[in-house]
Amino acid sequence: MNVLSLFDGMSCGRIALDRLGIKVDNYYASEIDKYAMKVSEANYPDIIQVGDVTALDLSTLPKIDLIMGGSPCQGFSFAGKQLAFDDPRSALFFEFVKCVKELKPKYFLLENVRMKKEYLDVISKQVSECYPEIPFGIEPIMINSALVSAQNRVRYYWTNIPGIEQPEQRGIVLRDILETTPDNYTLMSDKFAKRQEGRKCLVDMNKEKAASLSAMEYVKNGRQGDYLACNDTGIPKDLRKTHDTPKQVGTAVDIKGHDQIKRVYSEDGKSSTLTTCGGGHREPKVLAGAFRGRYEDDGTIKQHLELRQGGKTNSLTTVQKDNVVTKDNVYWRKLTPVECERLQTVPDDYTNHVSNSQRYKMLGNGWNIETITHILKNMEIQP
């Protein structure tokens, strides 16, 4: 099979074809982003880069069996300014149409974002004119990749591949794709987290689906992307998690007697069983104390949690740090590049040949691979 991929990015179409076991004789990629090209070539050294679509000489290409692409969507997107075909990036759609009309491949696949119906109609009319033999024209199919992944990603697909239906729900949720011990994570500052309070971008591992990845992922902190609750080493936290049994977190060293009465419990768990034997330190204990500034050896002042002795809390004041019940600290981090790859059902570390910022960008621009394989699997391939 000879394939022409326009606006190829990091070659998501090639990943999908490989996943389906479809033999690719020649894969021609039209792309101008040097970072995306670097990732494509690192994973598929046999890719033939043909440069800018606006300067592409179609006469140099052999018979093409499949043209696919997702023309730049900024002008169409509801998240953008809705300039549509007046936006030069969205006008590149007509380069796609030109290639399909001249090369007349057996199959084509075009992807784009949710947009106004008037723009949908223009695209449908243009691609339908490429295949007048299809009696009722070509209408877009809307698929939410949430059906096959842990990401809400609604996209339109135009294709002449027959028999495309909605994928079956696979029940994949966010916690399924999280790294349990990440080593490439970015913790956000307390100031950032405070600024995002009340916004939907601060999530924990119980969120069902991640927000749709964007090419601006984490470029403007807080505007794009989810920020995941975690501990100080990036391990995801379950903020709604409680324990059905008492959770011991320590032992009181200043109480004499049996080990059982020295146990200190987290307030996240159930209380241990109350007994009729009051006093004598027999009651269940949780950690309580206050933050106090104390001098370090180098002369600086650092806040320390000083635990309250005697089983009482400190006197309530208007200063929150004067009376605390200890609880594991919650940090917030970006989803890691590998987690974003998993949201797009891209192989782990496929994009690890460039910086994190470029990885986020190309993954946001890319395709959800399982959605594309669902569409391409209906092609009739000659042996």
What does this structure look like?
By secondary structure, the chain is of the alpha/beta class. Helix content is 20%, strand content 18%. The chain contains nine helices and 16 strands. It has helices spanning 12-19, 34-43, 93-103, 117-130, 174-177, 190-195, 337-343, 356-365, 369-376; strands at 2-6, 26-30, 48-49, 66-69, 107-113, 141-144, 154-159, 202-203, 227-230, 248-251, 263-265, 285-286, 288-295, 301-307, 324-325, 331-334. The relative contact order is 0.14. Mean pLDDT is 82; it is low at 265-279, 281-288 and 307-327.
Compose a concise summary of this entry:
The chain has 383 residues and is of the alpha/beta class. Helices cover 20% and strands 18% of the residues. The chain has 9 helices and 16 strands.
**Percentage beta strand:** 15-25%
Overall average pLDDT: 82
Estimate percent helicity: 10-25%
User: Could you tell me how far the N terminus lies from the C terminus, measured between alpha carbons in angstroms?
Assistant: 10 Å
Query: How would you classify the helix and strand content by structural class?
Result: alpha/beta
Specify the oligomeric state.
Answer: single chain
Principal-axes geometry comes out as elongated
Query: Count the helices. How many?
Result: 9
| Strand order, largest beta sheet | 3-2-1-4-5-7-6
SSE order: EHEHEEHEHEEHHEEEEEEEEEHHH
Low-pLDDT segments: 265-279, 281-288, 307-327
Major sheet characteristics: 7 strands, mixed
Report Rg. Answer: 28 Å
The number of strands is: 16
For the structure shown, list the relevant keywords.
alpha/beta, 3-stranded mixed β-sheet, elongated
